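Q: Structure tokens for this one, please.
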Amino acid sequence: MSAVGRVARALRRSSARVREDIAAAKLRDPAARSSIEIALLYPGLHAIWAHRVWHALWVRRVRFLARGGSQVTRWLTGIEIHPGAQIGRRFFVDHGMGVVIGETAEIGDDVMLYHGVTLGGRTRDAGKRHPTLGDGVAVGAGAKVLGPITIGAGSVIGANAVVTVDAPEDSVLVGIPAKPRKRTPGEDTRAVLTAPEYYI
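A: Here is the predicted structure, written as tokens:
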């Protein structure tokens, strides 16, 4: 394939991912009114779009530029994502101010974070030191998920929870320290994230 063909294919793929991101935001945010509003005014999307560029540089070992670019994104959006973090498809950050995602964090597909969430470390040791979130995890405002732990797919972390232990799939984690419990059948994610008993 020619260089022009490769560029055209990459642009088509990028365009499809952008449309997918906008659709995911529209699905998750009841305040969203139009695709153009989402594309232009949602800092969570701007942060993930920029992260894809910085992450591509990071894995190609252009690390100073990747870190510099991530800092510019932080200044512009209020969302700090280390360029080394691995993030899946249809990731959405609602509001976003104060979100911090560490270097060795791994985030699956269809994950949603609210403002003030930290996916942080608890050690200065090299290697894996940040959380892994499975597909479909939702994390409430102000929650801190710390250390090289794994949160299973479909789990929900309540607002202001402090999570330092692994959780199996379809768990609910609330409190300080948070302890996982199994989600009840039919329990709605949005209800878990907004119910008063889940706030600290």
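A few notes: The mean pLDDT is 87. The first helix runs from residue 3 to 28.
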